[in-house]
Amino acid sequence: MKRILCPTDFSEAAANAVQYAAQLAQKMNAGITLINVVQILADLTPEEAGVYRMELNEQDSRKQLEELSEAVIKTFKVPCGFVVETSIGSLSKVISSKALGYDLIVMGTEGTCSIAQFLFGTKTYNVIREANVPVLMVPEDCQYKEIKLIVFAFDYWRTNQLPLTKLIELARILNSEILVLEVMEESRSKKAEKELKEDQKQIRQLYDDEGVAIRFDTIYTSDLPPSVNSYMLRNQADLLALCAIRHSLIERIFHKSLIKNISGMASYPVFVFQ
Length: 274
What we know:
By secondary structure, the protein is α/β, with parallel strands linked by helices. It has 9 helices and 10 strands.
């Protein structure tokens, strides 16, 4: 992961995400591109839109991004460029499209109070839905710290798959341990529990040569987001990883609910990958 795209609307949440992205870039030996999306009113004529873009918001955004980019380079000693995008379309679509060619999107979020905010909140979730690259959500009060423990909440028993490749890549770079958290709505039979243990053993053996420590745990709950959140806090985990599944209806409902709701209550960074 060498290229990080960091959207900003110059809010406090966005500023915190930029700082987090810069410190992460140091760890990953990566570069950052800041992006600000200037929305043009849809009812403007092309001529009016051009004037609006060149004389007002775009110039202001470019100036702020240039100053922010210089501050990142000076403070964190990482490459940092910037780009201003103008659009009459949705912010999430613009960001998702621009993210092609990048390895990671880092976005700030203010949690539940940001639902109607300009860029973050639900827009972050929409970027996750549309982007083809991983998204790292950073809560406004979340400060960067070394990521030693990554909890990957995933129902691999029901989906009959465990997509670890992208996560192992991240864990290897950060020198982190992965804890795979199986989340079930109800207890299984003793036979099923035994089969689960066998699956876990085979998974460990499969990734033995990857250089990443992997362990397992299980929780039983019908209320996924608060249960996963409580687990994260109880175990003092540094990063929650979630996988955005785009397969069956049941899988989409399960992971959509967890991703959408956990983003409103998390006090820790959340890494979502496809």
